[in-house]
Amino acid sequence: MALEHAILVSLLEKPGSGYELARRFERSIGYFWTATHQQIYRVLKRMESDGWVDVRDVAQYGRPDKKEYSVAGPGRAALAAWLNEATEPESVRHDLAVKVRGAAFGDPAALISEVERHRQAHTDRLAHYLAGETRDFGEPPAHGPLDAERELQHVVLRGGIAYERMMIAWLDDVLATLAGFDAGR
Amino acid sequence: MALEHAILVSLLEKPGSGYELARRFERSIGYFWTATHQQIYRVLKRMESDGWVDVRDVAQYGRPDKKEYSVAGPGRAALAAWLNEATEPESVRHDLAVKVRGAAFGDPAALISEVERHRQAHTDRLAHYLAGETRDFGEPPAHGPLDAERELQHVVLRGGIAYERMMIAWLDDVLATLAGFDAGR
DNA sequence: TCCTCCTATGCACCTCGTTGCATAGCAACG
DNA sequence: CGTTGCTATGCAACGAGGTGCATAGGAGGA
């Protein structure tokens, strides 16, 4: 389980509340690790009782108070230990691939609109990534070329961009294959 | 949940026992949808009681008897319904991406061997895919160019190949980034 | 003969993840 | 003043998924 480690990384990048973490998991972090607010609150409780994070009540004006979490020593140690631990690549799960193979036993042409829907979703996400790259990494950093945090965030984003481009190209391949059945009928 | 649909597709391609399905999920199907034998047996029971599949006891010599499952009418209908249903892209989970961003708060160089391990795994899998492609799709099919089942299996395999190539290229990008910190120190 | 391995099926338990719901403060709008 | 909507936290229940273990037939080797 890497959710607790993903939370540690996010809190090291910037301390915040459960609610703020949940919103980060809808954007940057969530592009390669998803979590709902329920999971996050539950795991934060456990991490707090394990001494991995510290909590601080923060009064806010114009909105409800919040609990701001930050990483404590044992949390840092746990993250360091996990980084040195060998983990297997996460299992891939593409329901669309199941559908494509299943289309052989139904109407392949009926799948075209579904594939196009997925293609659109990946195109949108790619545009979003590219906009984020220009915004956050377009200019060389003011504090020298060796800011590890920034460089590593950028290489992860480049991974997301490569993934979306690969998916769009593959979905075009799928569409061409499906169109071939139509034409050849 | 697509496990039941993945099982339906696999049984339509070829009827078999839970044990055989489990081994298929370790190879072809398992490249884009994973499942343990426990999940498979459990779901097969449910599918049987729902009338999605038929069972046939098969006596074997030199090994224990087995139950051979095949898809029944309601199962076919359920698959067709699912194919016409809009599903969201599965959420991606790359623990390595979490590690890469986490490396900013530890020793980036310590991550190199872990990244290289993953790169090797993806290289191995790519070689396996390419061998399978040559074996299964190298020759044009004897029964005409419009065998939908074969064509669709091939396009899914091409997706796997594209994924592995993308991952290898990205891992090289990560390694170059990590090496940059070492050199610049 | 015993040990190990492969085929084949299954139970019990536990964790992870999701859904639905509840509560509560405050802002903005009609 | 009521409704809607955003911030913020949390409980309860359920289903999916994974680990460990158990059983059982037969093959093959030490």
TrEMBL record, chains A, B:
Gene3D superfamilies: 6.10.140.190, Winged helix-like DNA-binding domain superfamily/Winged helix DNA-binding domain. Residues 92-178 form the Transcription regulator PadR C-terminal domain. Residues 7-80 form the Transcription regulator PadR N-terminal domain. It holds the Pfam family Vir_act_alpha_C. Coiled coil: none annotated. It comes from the Bacteria. This is PadR family transcriptional regulator. It comes from Streptomyces cupreus.
